[in-house]
Amino acid sequence: MENKRKSYNLLIGIIALLAIVIFVAIAGYIVSRPEPPVIQGQAEATEYRVSGKVPGRIEQFYASEGDFVRKGDTLVKIDSPEVKARLAQAKAARSAAEAQKAKALAGTRQEQIAGAYELWQQALVNEDIMRKSFERVERLYGQNVISAQKYDEAKARYDAAKASSAAAESQYTMALNGAREEDKAAAIALVDKAEAALMEVESYLDELYLVSPADGVVSARFPKAGELVGQGSPVMAVTDLDDAWFTFNIREDMLHGLRTGDVLDVMVPALGDDIYRTEVTYISVLESYATWRATQDTGGYDARTFEVRSVPRVHIDGLRPGMTAIVMTGEHGKRK
Q1: Cβ(227)–Cβ(248) under 8 Å?
Q2: Crossing angle of helices 110-142/81-106, nearest 10°?
Q3: What radius of gyration, in Å, describes the C-alpha atoms of the chain?
Q4: Cβ-contact 245, 323 below 8 angstroms
Q5: Do 85 and 199 belong to one domain?
Q6: What is the pLDDT of residues 25-59, one digit of tens each?
Q7: How far, in Å, CA of 237 to CA of 29, rounded?
Q8: What is the pTM for the complete model shown?
């Protein structure tokens, strides 16, 4: 009887030991089991930079950061004395051209001959100034100090000055020789040219008012009121929240055959626990700096990193660029 009791106690002990071993093994497996990788990215949206064609000083803002604006809304007014001066010059040139036209049609007088001569001399002085300016720009361009655009602009101004000088000379010659039908036609053409130049300058007046290129939210204002801005310098940024997407940087060994057109379920923590269905529209490898390098000890391989973009199938209220986005793996993962 004593032996049976000892055998029974031994069996109980063995069973208890096995249970403890199994429990420890299961617990160790659960604890040591690797967590599924978290694929994290961020929301982005199309951003438009608002800039002008003419330099000037910010006179007034009509919208602040965070304001919703419509396409065509006026956002900024720029004060440009240079444009006003060019407008005055263009009007003066048109008046001079109209005077030349009237002279050609009415006949030549001594006063008109003297006026034509003065205009010619003025054009020659302007041509000389433009020539010297172009020669300086040409030297700087040869030294790769300035861009080809600046060189082309300087050459265009010099060519225009030469053309104006030649036109003024022809007007003076016409005044001396008396107006002919050809001279009258030339005078009319000179007026047309002056009108075209005036229209060009007047078109810059519209550029003093910068408008929104799309519906969206003003996401940034770069200069402050009263500051100077150069030609093409961004003044404001307008973000189109209706054109939003998510961007993820994923190592290639985690792509698992992901292709464009696949579905990714994405959660945006800032918007709660809702899961949004998105469609992959773009997959492209990043530069070599984003390559994960394997060591010789691991025996692995260098894994490239790919940029993956997915677009929500429906508009997500409250989504803003920069918000964190997480791909839901497992049962919420990629779907065809």
Answers
A1: no
A2: 140
A3: 38
A4: no
A5: yes
A6: 666 555 555 556 778 999 999 999 998 888 888 88
A7: 53
A8: 0.54
